[in-house]
Amino acid sequence: MPKFADIKGFAFDLDGVITDTARLHGQAWRQTADTVGTPWTAELAESLKGISRLESLEMILAAGGHANDYTEREKEALADEKNEAYQELIKTLTPADILPGMGDFIRDAVAQGYRLSIASASKNAPAILNNLGLTKYFIGIVDPATLSAGKPDPEIFVRAAAVLDLPNEQIIGLEDSAAGIKSINAAGQTSLGIAAAGVLPEAKLHFTATSQVTLATIATKMNQ
Ligand code: B16
Ligand code: MG
After folding, report:
1. How many other C-beta atoms are found inside a 10 Å radius of the C-beta of residue 208?
2. d(Cα 28, Cα 182) in Å, to the nearest integer?
3. How large is the average pLDDT for residues 208-215?
4. Burial letters for 11-43: b for 16+ Cβ neighbours within 10 Å, e otherwise?
5. For the segment 120-138, what is each residue's pLDDT rounded down to a tens digit?
6. Contact present, 56 and 38 (Cβ < 8 Å)
7. pLDDT tens-digit profile of 169-204?
């Protein structure tokens, strides 16, 4: 693992790291699960984190044994319906919905000269960041519509490095999903996982809450 002094930038996942949209995605997908007749479970909800919209739908269909029950057109309609419900929910987000400590961490990092980018699978990331009042802190957002493969493929974090104009070794990637941690590790960046103990065993740096993530605590973990 690099030393903290080598780090020059951070690539942030959005959902579950900066704000708790996982809750809102879950609310919207649950309606889809009801529509197609798939029982909604906590495990299914967890497995959708970091996964693109259409892939998430495929997983919901498969979980209920409905993988072959819908045409491509019907699947697109189901995904559009979920997104419309989700977009209504994200309209309610304000700066008060930034997860504990993340606003301070982002402002501190920028004040100390670190470069910040967003590596989110969500096509709604620009609207969410705007509602949270955080757009100005980020050099750029990777557009997930331009990716050939989603998380756990490294592509999204490799593209975040290009946005930051930094080598992968100088970047910490922050994630709450197993797919995202795999993506960061495969990109050659230092993965920082935020999840309950034992949930992200592949994360190089592990925190159980966003409120614990500060430049000082990261430095301590990396240099010990
Ligand atoms: P959208 P992240 C991901 O965002 C979510 O975790 C995942 O649940 C969602 O399906 C995906 O974005 C796509 O989002 O439907 O808004 O394009 O965690 O990578 O920031
Ligand atoms: Mg996430």
Report:
1. 13
2. 26
3. 98
4. bbbbbbbbbbbbebbbebbbebbeebebebeee
5. 999 999 999 999 999 999 9
6. no
7. 999 999 999 999 999 999 999 999 999 999 999 999
Neighbours of 121 (CB within 10 A): 25
Burial label, 59 (beta-carbon count in 10 A; 0-12, 13-18, 19+): middle
Catalytic residue IDs: 13, 15
Q: Please give the number of the atom of ligand 1 that sits closest to the Cα of 151.
A: 19
Asked whether residue 22 carries a pLDDT value surpassing 90, the answer given is no
Sign of the CA dihedral running 76, 78, 82, 87: positive
Residues in Cβ contact with 25 at an 8 Å cutoff, skipping those fewer than 6 apart? 15, 48, 56, 86
**Residues within 6 Å of ligand 1 by CB:** 13-16, 25, 48-53, 56, 83, 120-124, 177
CB 149 within 8 A of CB 155: yes
Task: Take atom 3 of ligand 1 and give the residue whose Cα is closest.
Answer: 50
Q: Which structure tokens are listed for 74?
A: 């019907």
CA nearest neighbour of 87 among 45, 46, 53: 53
Report which of 206, 18, 99, 7 is spatially closest to residue 217, judged by C-alpha positions. 206
Cβ-in-10-Å burial (0-12, 13-18, 19+) of 145 comes to: exposed
Using a pLDDT cut of 70, give the percent of the chain over it.
100
